[in-house]
Amino acid sequence: MYAVLTDDPDLARAGIGDRSYHFVEYVDGSRNEPIEDPNVVHSVACWGDTETVEAEPDRAAVAADGTRATATGEGGWGTVCPTDPDYRDGVLERIEELEGDVRLTTLGFPGEAYCQCKRCDRRFADAESDDRTAWRTTVVTDFVAAVARRVDGDLLATAYPDPYPGQLEQRAGIDLAALSAFVDGVLVPLCSPGYETSYWVESIARGFDATLRELETDVELAIQLSGARIEPDRLAEVTRTVEPYADEIVYGTYPDDAETVRETIELLREQAAVPG
Ligand SMILES: [Zn+2]
């Protein structure tokens, strides 16, 4: 299955792939009107919200040394503390209003060092666990469970592209085994405009496929590729290296790249139709 991911409503409706992912809430804090269409997946940023973090710095996730998760940091966007109760409620309320399939982005803590704000310290101290990594995964899993109760279609979680055992838990608080009870798919972004090299794309996709197989779950794997600065035959070539592992390929697509992505999908479908 092929899909495009875009913040452009016309492109989302253009029928380029089998379905479209459309940004309803983006990491910069912007929001778009949801498109009501069964072939559109609503993409919602959970805690990535540069606008909120810039307007209210105290709401940012914070490391022990006081570093706040702002847009100038590694991620390139600001991240609100995942235990901020009002923010969490707001995200859940907006998700409840959406109809159909939902993909969560910026799920989890913005890095291993986060969050050590006073509220998180207090909650961890009150928790049953004395393992902070385990406590963080509980925060994220409980949130995804709450989302799942509000989504009437499929639910997909975006995972940081690190399939090494234990790393997603340490980095973000994402425990795929625990999440598999609540999500229908995991989406892994492997974006690099142009793909001068692509061996890593295959390696990481393979790693996630192996992880999901080990979990013996029905959770599907979607791989996100970049449609920018590349020729269709090269993008088709990169796609073919991950197709053995992925149930869906999602192309990040700007309006300028729409033709490239359309041609890539046509090429792939033609090749798949050739017998033998
Ligand atoms: Zn916190």
From TrEMBL:
Highest taxon, organism lineage: Archaea
Protein name as annotated: Uncharacterized protein
Lineage: Archaea, Methanobacteriati, Methanobacteriota, Stenosarchaea group, Halobacteria
Species this protein is from: Halobiforma nitratireducens JCM 10879
